[in-house]
Amino acid sequence: MQWVLRNRKQLFFLLILAIVGTGVSFFSIYNGIIYKSWSILTLSGIISYFYIQKIRKTNLRSIPYIKIHLIALIWMIAVCVFPAINEGLSFSEYYPFAILTYAYIIGITIPFDIRDLKYDDPHYKTIPQLVGVKNAKSISIGLLFTFFYFSFQLSPGLLYHNLFYLAFILTILLVALVNHKRSDLYYLVWIEV
User: Fold this and answer.
1) Rounded to an integer, what distance in angstroms lies between the CA atom of residue 70 and that of residue 148?
2) How far is CA 169 from the centre of its chain?
3) Are 3 and 52 a contacting pair, CB within 8 Å?
4) Residue 52 near residue 59, CB atoms below 8 Å
5) Which of 88-92, 99-103, 109-113 has the lowest mean pLDDT?
6) Triad 78, 97, 135: Cα angle to 5°
7) What average pLDDT does the structure give for the chain?
8) pTM to 2 decimals?
């Protein structure tokens, strides 16, 4: 947050650039379902903005229990729900992928909550704050195994993609090695990538 405050002007410029880029991108992939598409993008934008921006001395990320769920919701909308709606898929066609995406994002976000233990206010009630680092890593790995198993149920062709296995094994290993003493570089280079 200190970095954000120091670089407010540059971030504002990047925000304007991102809005313009999003508009251009939206119209280049737009498939005619304007009301639903704009509604879901607007919801995502509002949640993303107020995740950091304070309203009466609080922001969405500081509301107990929901920090990680807001992150998972935004990513699920961006990589699953919006593309599905834009392609005209019905809810029953995309909701299994949406739930799976949600579980995966929670699984890969828990390590960041472990990293943030030294920064997060205890009232945030993040998973590591509630159950401890060891149990949080177990939950993360359990969600990743759930994602791995059900991915094959939804897309049997993944059985034949070695890169999927490699990415899964690497992700599990990186999560297993997480602790709150690791440097930010570990999270930014290895976990985030």
Assistant:
1) 22
2) 20
3) no
4) yes
5) 88-92
6) 90
7) 86
8) 0.79
Statement: residue 92 has pLDDT above 60: yes
Residue 159 makes CB contacts below 8 A (sequence gap 6+) with 152
The answer to whether 145 and 106 have CB atoms below 8 angstroms apart is no
Any idea which of 4-8, 65-69, 80-84, 179-183 has the lowest mean pLDDT? 4-8
- Say whether pLDDT at 57 is over 90: no
Residues 6+ apart with CB under 8 A from 173: none
Q: State how far the Cα of 69 lies from the Cα of 73, in Å rounded to an integer.
A: 6
Name 150's Cβ contacts closer than 8 Å, sequence gap at least 6.
Answer: 96, 100
Q: Spell out the SS3 assignment of the chain.
A: CHHHHHCHHHHHHHHHHHHHHHHHHHHHHCCCCHHHHHHHHHHHHHHHHHHHCCECCECHHHCCCCHHHHHHHHHHHHHHHHHHHHCCCCHHHHHHHHHHHHHHHHHHHHHHHHHHHHCCCHHHCCHHHHHCHHHHHHHHHHHHHHHHHHHHHHCHHHHHCHHHHHHHHHHHHHHHCCCCCCCHHHHHHHHCC
Domain boundaries, the chain: 64-191
CA distances from 103 to 62, 134, 151, 171 (A): 21, 19, 11, 14
- Residues 87/26, Cβ–Cβ less than 8 Å: no
51-70 b/e with 16+ CB inside 10 Å = b? beeeeeeeebbeeeebbbeb
